[in-house]
Amino acid sequence: xNNNQELSQENQESDFSIRxxxxxxxxxxxxxxxxxxxTLVCAFIYLRYxxxxxxxxxxxxxxxDKKGGLASEFSALxxxxxxxxxxxxxxxxxxxxxxxxxxxNTVEELKLNVSYINHGRVKSVELYKNSPIVFLFFPKAKDxxxxxxxxxxxxxxxxxxxxxxxxxxxxxxRYNKLISSTLGNILVTKSTREDSKLNGEFSIDCEVSPLAKxxxxxxxxxxxxxLSKNTSVVELSIVDEVPERGEDxxxxxxxxxxxxxxxxxxxxxxxxxxxxxxxxxFITNELSDVEKDVEGFKNQNRLTxxxxxxxxxxxxxxxxxxxxxxxxxxxxxxxxxxxxxKSSKSEDLVPTxxxxxxxxxxxxxxxxxxxxxVIERNRIATGATLDNPVVKNADKRIVALxxxxxxxxxxxxxxxxxxxxxxxxxxxxxxxxxxxxxxxxREFRIIDRQQKVKEALYLYLLEKRxxxxxxLAATEQSAKVIxxxxxxxxxxxxxxxxIYLGALLAGLAIPFGIIYIMDLLNTKIKTRxxxxxxxxxxxxxxxxxxxxxxxxxxxxxxxxSAEAIRIVRTNLEFMLTGVQGDKGKAIFVTSTIPGEGKxxxxxxxxxxIALSGKxxxxxxxxxxxxxLAEYIPIKSEGVTNYxxxxxxxxxxxxxxxxxxxxxxxxxxxxxxxxxxxLLMNDKLNKMFTELKDTYDYIIVDTAPVSVVxxxxxxxxxxxxxxxxxxxxxLDKRMLHVPEMFYNQKxxxxxxxxxxxxxxxxxxxxxxxxxxxxVQEEVKPWYKNIFKK
Length: 788
Hints:
By secondary structure, the protein is an alpha/beta fold. The chain folds into 4 domains: 15-50 and 495-521, no CATH class; 114-208, no CATH class; 306-451; 535-784, P-loop containing nucleotide triphosphate hydrolases (Rossmann fold, 3-Layer(aba) Sandwich). A hairpin with a 6-residue loop joins strand 11 (222-226) and strand 12. The longest helix has 85 residues, at 389-473. It is elongated.
């Protein structure tokens, strides 16, 4: 339950703090209204005469290297290794479009360094192409770095004009005539545009700026950026006072960019063509030398086609080996047969088919005939004896035929030996030739490789020469215009809504800042909440600032101050409930420093209590600086006279007011030379005892407690202390004074009143209803607008 109460209290305090801050600024609403009107008027004047700026935009498609764009013309050299792998891309072309050189050429092409100004009464207008003249200025060679120069050109008649420089007339000249001057040559011609704004008499300022300075101006305003990372589309934009000039600048910039790119491509293509022609001439000579080397190599080695001839030679070498082996076999066979014949008998058969076919048909036929005869003889001998004439005849024939076979074999053996010797000679020749084959192949491959390389390079250069010729014949632009330059119809600057909004915010911010700074630098107490946050002293109420500090409450008073005093009186009754006894109550009123309105509170509080039917005495105890006489017509003699003399009673010093039946006043009297000693007199205590027996309330106006000790000397006679704090007067750092007195209980039954608080003029008054149902008289606003 307690937590909920604390939370509710915190929320209420927070809401009140926010409301308090809002009301603090609303109290100065006239400041806000005045500054808003001033700032809006200033904004209107600014927009009326400010020069509007327009944004021109153009969009182009840059040929990217990934799509064979700008780098395609370099391919002939890059493939040859003449150029490296650095190729053009969108980022590079963006930098080219922003380059000083390209912008310089554009400014020079359009002659943008010359401005035509028509001066009005308040505002000057740049004519650009609407100028009725074209001004050309050619500075001298030594004066190319001239500063900005202004010439005045005024019409005289349709054929002549007046030229002025630095308020000095140079002369009257005819159009289209070159003029020589100390600054340079000047040529003025008539404009051919039909939409020239000045067709009659005119006077125009021709401002000639250095090209470099004008280039920097356009460069700082030019923006070039790709639309996205995945495309090669680039957007160009520039902000300029003249919409048409912005469009012309962007269009011409792209044209010169394409023109420079084409010239660069053609230059590269021409250089490439020259390089290829030189290389072709050199390669042709080298290829001719290599072909002569091939011809000499073949003639020297008796070759036509080394590969086919080498293959045939190797095949012949294989046949030779076969023949050599067969010859050796036949030699062995023949030798074996000769040996066999020598050792064989008449009845033995000679082996047949061991001689290779085609070796010696004679020996073969003789052996076949011999074997046939031996078989016949052996068949006859089977049925007859060896002495049988037929057998003997057969034996003779066998011996003769065997001799013939031997002779034939000897001849065959001799033939095979000759063949063997021939094969050996041929083998030696083949071996020598075979040993030369790798060397010939190696030498031929070296020459053949050179020939093939030269031929391939020759054909490649011929192909590239044709490609370069095609490139020269049809050169493609580096940038394709997607959208030509177009300026916005609405100015991008100044933006009317933003200017007015800024003026409105400035009109709010200026007084807000002033009030905030004043509040920040102001260390004075302003509100009740500031006191309650710092001090735990009972608070009787706050009294609004009165129109007159000498105002005194009466029965007809309905002001906020009067109602506030009545609330203080009511709250004071609660503070006095703890006071014992039926005697009158002594209420002392004090403050920290002079000027806080304690006398004002004392007088009006006493009057308010008196109006309620109570008998009240107002006592002036500020004997060093009395102020009661400023509010009430009273006697000059008073407390000090009573304390210092013994011949008169106290009642003789009391003044009775005519308008207040129950309101009496005892002034402080003559200012004494020894106030402290006088206040320490025992007679003072007797005086208060006597007064309490006579009056219901004794309101005592005392001295400030931080200035003198007078109040502390008489504090023991008080039943309650009202400590007055004046708003916007007492420094917050002085609040420790009432806090100290309260904690040390030096001022009995102490409570606070905040005096002279600021109020807002409302029907219900201030706070909880001061002057309920009554509207205070409000002065005209023009009298109070600067009062705050």
